[in-house]
Design brief:
A: mainly alpha; Outer Surface Protein A, domain 3; two-stranded antiparallel ribbon; B: alpha/beta; TIM Barrel; 8-stranded parallel β-barrel; globular; binds fe (ii) ion
């Protein structure tokens, strides 16, 4: 084994060696032969019994393979639980390949499995195939997959993150009781569980279908403005129009109601009066949905 | 109350019954998300629940809400999978502080984890990896238990995991390691009877010797679970009922300890709650056998042996990780 003097170093080496071997993507034999493993214990496969003993029925390699198989099976099954619609879209074989690649790039470094999928959407973005020549044709299959993973991860974070279940949120009366001047100068504090996601596919419907055991077809691209939040501990999502989404985004970014409305009117090249009917409807809906925790009046 | 009634029935020997230093909670089951709705609606007469600590310590959503409801109605024990007490990586004090906060909040009767390591070099494999059983690792583990107990301000309880390899560097049997560890560090033991059985087959040791050799007063709790027979070895899959030889070992252990809290783990192919509960209640038969000195008829107990088949991949993942998936309207 090692020639270090301290026995603690030996335990240290043994653990690093075992982790290197059982997490090697090409399996235990490749792990034992790998440069990283050999830097720890300089030995060939034939000498492995110096570290791991065989049983009556299994060789040392086969015994280590139980841990190696379990490592990938366990963690890819957690990713499957978190990204079922993504997995359904790409199919079993491709999902296993994505999971294996992801686990090599972003191995877990947290005590909790809820952090395991955190970087999956950004991993997909970083490794998406270059399809520059088709860019002008609009969103692609790769965009669809990235959006699926993005929304599924948002669901996880909203589900278990901070919420408003124990808080009083701004209700329709709060909105109705303000004068126009107060109203235009007010800012709205978003609920901590509010997420606004702009998409090129209606992936929310596809995700719901997969979760309900249906077999959805890949949808046609369609600009989608998704508002995700949590009420009574359940994740809620609803698709809204571009203007409503624009105003929600402006308000969530800290603009006053007046500035937000002016911004949206300018974006739509419409006047504020034309928005008026919609505005009152939106604010009522937002209050009912609990998107905002409080109304902060200008001092 | 039904719960109290059964506890009394189980306390079938005259006091002082238990040789354990720990409170007797009765027959419990692991709290799993698929049962949340059922539990809130029916408040079944379960004696106690065990939670996977890591699934709740950061939760600000439904898991934590449900846990608070459960903790109001039932005794709760915390069972972790990421303490990594045997690792040579530094202890994670942020994690320990969160563990303590949760333990205080839910009035955890005790906090347990496993005699294992889960990763080094900044990584977590989320597996319960075995450590070599020798003097050096014993000293290392004991020192770390003492630090953890100082931070948590309570004795911790450590479980024997199932294992699939033995190290050339091991110099003592696992039961000797556990016994010395518990005595030297002054900690409790969670004796997983199924893991003893699984490891005894995988490593060719005598399961009863293992159980007889432990310091019984330090055993806070038993685990029972199903496993998978892969022909050449057994894997601790927590995916089915407890098999006869494990029940027999449980009976032996119970005879030695008396009135030790007992918990059933079921983590894959999780059945409806009443089936899960009925499985742990089967222990009453074996406990009654202890009290009455009767031999048990175990032939009705279903076998949980699967050979390589359709869903062998699912069936052979050891102690599957319990991931909490989002619930979407
Ligand atoms: Fe266990």
């Amino acid at each position: 084994m090692t020639t270090q003097e301290s026995p603690f170093d030996e335990l240290d080496a043994l653990q690093l060696w075992m982790q290197t071997v059982i997490t090697h993507p090409a399996g235990v034999k490749a792990g034992v032969a790998s440069k990283n493993a050999n830097q720890i214990f300089d030995m060939r496969e034939a000498e492995i019994e110096r570290v791991i003993q065989p049983s009556e029925t299994l060789s040392a390699i086969q015994r280590l393979e139980i841990y190696s198989n379990a490592y990938f099976a366990r963690l890819s099954s957690c990713l499957l639980d978190e990204f079922p619609a993504f997995a359904y879209a790409v199919g079993d074989t491709a999902f296993q390949a994505f999971a294996s690649e992801y686990l090599q790039t972003f191995p877990s470094n947290s005590y909790t499995l809820s952090a395991l999928g955190r970087s999956f959407p950004s991993f997909l973005r970083a490794t998406r195939p270059a399809d520059l020549s088709f860019e002008s044709l609009g969103p692609t299959w790769a965009d669809f997959l990235i959006e699926l993973a993005t929304v599924e991860r948002v669901y996880s974070e909203v589900f278990d993150g901070p919420g408003i279940e124990h808080e009083r949120v701004a209700d329709p009366q709060d909105f109705a009781s303000l004068s126009v001047v107060q109203w235009l100068g007010a800012r709205l504090t978003p609920a901590p569980c509010l997420r606004l996601v702009q998409l090129s596919y209606p992936v929310h419907e596809y995700i719901t279908d997969v979760r309900r055991g249906r077999n959805p077809q890949t949808p046609a691209p369609s600009k989608t403005y998704l508002v995700i939040t949590r009420r009574n501990y359940l994740v809620r999502r609803s698709a809204v129009g571009e203007s409503e989404f624009g105003l929600l985004t402006a308000l969530a970014n800290g603009l006053t109601v007046g500035d937000g409305v002016a911004y949206v009117a300018q974006q739509n090249q419409s006047d504020i009066d034309a928005l008026e009917f919609e505005l009152s409807q939106w604010f009522r809906n937002w209050a009912e949905a609990g998107y905002f925790r409080q109304i902060v009046l200008a001092s | 109350m039904l719960r109290r009634g059964r506890l009394r029935r189980l306390n079938c020997l005259e006091s002082p019954q238990s040789r354990s230093d720990y409170a007797y909670l009765g027959l419990g089951v692991g709290l799993r998300t698929v049962h949340f709705d059922y539990l809130l609606r029916h408040t079944p007469a379960v004696d106690w629940f065990e939670i996977i600590s890591e699934n709740f310590m950061d939760s600000e959503g439904r898991p934590r809400y449900v846990l608070d409801q459960i903790a109001e109605r039932y005794p709760v024990v915390m069972h972790g999978v990421s303490l990594s007490i045997g690792s040579t990586a530094p202890l994670n004090f942020k994690y320990l502080r969160k563990l303590k906060t949760l333990a205080d909040a839910v009035n955890a009767r005790w906090v347990s984890d496993h005699v294992c390591w889960t990763g080094v070099a900044g990584r977590n494999t989320h597996d319960l990896l075995p450590i070599p059983m020798n003097e050096e690792s014993l000293r290392h583990v004991v020192r770390r238990i003492q630090i953890v107990q100082d931070v948590l301000e309570r004795r911790i309880v450590l479980e024997n995991p199932s294992s699939y390899v033995t190290f050339a560097a091991s110099t003592m049997p696992e039961w000797e390691f556990l016994s010395r560890m518990a005595d030297d560090a002054d900690c409790g033991l969670l004796l997983d009877i199924n893991n003893v059985y699984v490891s005894s087959v995988n490593h060719g040791f005598h399961a009863e010797t293992y159980i007889r050799s432990l310091p019984h007063h330090r055993i806070a709790q038993f685990h029972l679970a199903g496993h998978t027979n892969c022909g050449t070895h057994l894997i601790d899959t927590h995916d089915g009922p407890v098999i006869d030889p494990v029940w027999k070992l449980f009976q032996t252990a119970y005879k030695l300890t008396q009135n030790v809290s007992t918990l059933l783990e079921w983590d894959a192919r999780v059945p409806e709650f009443p089936i899960l509960h009925a499985e742990v209640l089967k222990s009453q038969r074996y406990i009654a056998g202890v009290c009455d000195g009767e031999a048990n008829k175990t032939s009705e107990t279903p076998k949980a042996s699967y050979t390589h088949g359709d869903d062998v991949k699912l069936a052979t993942t050891p102690h599957p990780a319990v991931f909490v998936a989002a619930e979407v309207e």
